[in-house]
Amino acid sequence: GAVVSQHPSRVICKSGTSVKIECRSLDFQATTMFWYRQFPKQSLMLMATSNEGSKATYEQGVEKDKFLINHASLTLSTLTVTSAHPEDSSFYICSAASGGTGELFFGEGSRLTVL
Amino acid sequence: AQSVTQLDSHVSVSEGTPVLLRCNYSSSYSPSLFWYVQHPNKGLQLLLKYTSAATLVKGINGFEAEFKKSETSFHLTKPSAHMSDAAEYFCVVSEGFQKLVFGTGTRLLVSP
């Protein structure tokens, strides 16, 4: 089946630094990608929807200046957590929608720990 | 807005016994419903999906779910649990074009 790759799978950073997480669709073109956040033992919350070549659409309560999303190509979306703080520590998961079938595929997630 | 409620945060079964994970949905129109499984520190894998075709949906790894409109339910079942089934399970409803709304999850524990 289709594969979505996230990198890095784990990242530890100091408070105040910025961290970039990549989400790649390896064998299909993804016109739309979604970014989710998952706190420990909780469900996934949609953060934003990114469409290739246009600005991301953020869910209510998500700071667009804090979580920068770029979807520059049909196979790559990036999430940058700017000036990270300990409360940003979380599991971030992306999903990509196949442009052909519309089916969604999930990455394996990236665990961010901010010290 | 659409939503799903997973009635149990934890379900414990013995290996070889049946599994039942409960999910109720709320939707103003005919919904698309999904079950996803998440193993620790992993992404999500689609188990099965309902999109207004047959009400009994068969998925991977022996799982199936039945859509019951009269009960607004979409419970996940498996006749015989395996140790490898231990994971977090999410009931999900689609809120329109690929936008998914997740339930709070049910952790399945399988004992030998």
Overall description:
The complex is a heterodimer of chains A (115) and B (112). Chain A has 115 residues and is mainly beta. Helix content of chain A is 0%, strand content 56%. Chain A starts with a strand and ends with a strand. Chain B has strands spanning 3-6, 10-14, 19-21, 23-26, 33-38, 44-50, 56-58, 64-68, 73-78, 87-94, 100-102, 106-111. Chain B is globular, with a radius of gyration of 13 Å. In chain B, the strands form 3 sheets. In chain B, strands 2, 5, 6, 10, 11 and 12 form a 6-stranded mixed β-sheet that branches. Chain B is mostly beta strands and 112 residues long. Chain A binds chain B through residues 4, 6, 32, 34, 42-46, 49, 91, 93, 95, 97, 102, 104, 106-109, 111, and chain B through 36, 41-46, 90, 98-105.
Which sheet architecture does the biggest sheet of chain A show? 7 strands, mixed
What would the average pLDDT of chain B be, to the nearest integer?
91
Compute the CA-based radius of gyration of chain B: 13 Å
Helix content of chain A: under 10%
Order of helices and strands of chain B: EEEEEEEEEEEE
User: Percent of residues of chain B in helical segments?
Assistant: under 10%
Tally of helical runs of chain A? 0
Structural class of chain B: mainly beta
Termini separation of chain B: 41 Å
Topology (SSEs and partners):
The complex is a heterodimer of chains A (115) and B (112).
Chain A: E1 4-7, E2 10-13, E3 19-25, E4 30-38, E5 44-51, E6 57-58, E7 67-73, E8 76-81, E9 90-98, E10 104-106, E11 110-114
Parallel strand pairs in A: 2-11
Antiparallel strand pairs in A: 1-3, 3-8, 4-5, 4-9, 5-6, 7-8, 9-10, 9-11
Chain B: E1 3-6, E2 10-14, E3 19-21, E4 23-26, E5 33-38, E6 44-50, E7 56-58, E8 64-68, E9 73-78, E10 87-94, E11 100-102, E12 106-111
Parallel strand pairs in B: 2-12
Antiparallel strand pairs in B: 1-4, 3-9, 5-6, 5-10, 7-8, 8-9, 10-11, 10-12
Give a short summary of the structure.
The complex is a heterodimer of chains A (115) and B (112). With 115 residues, chain A is an all-beta fold.
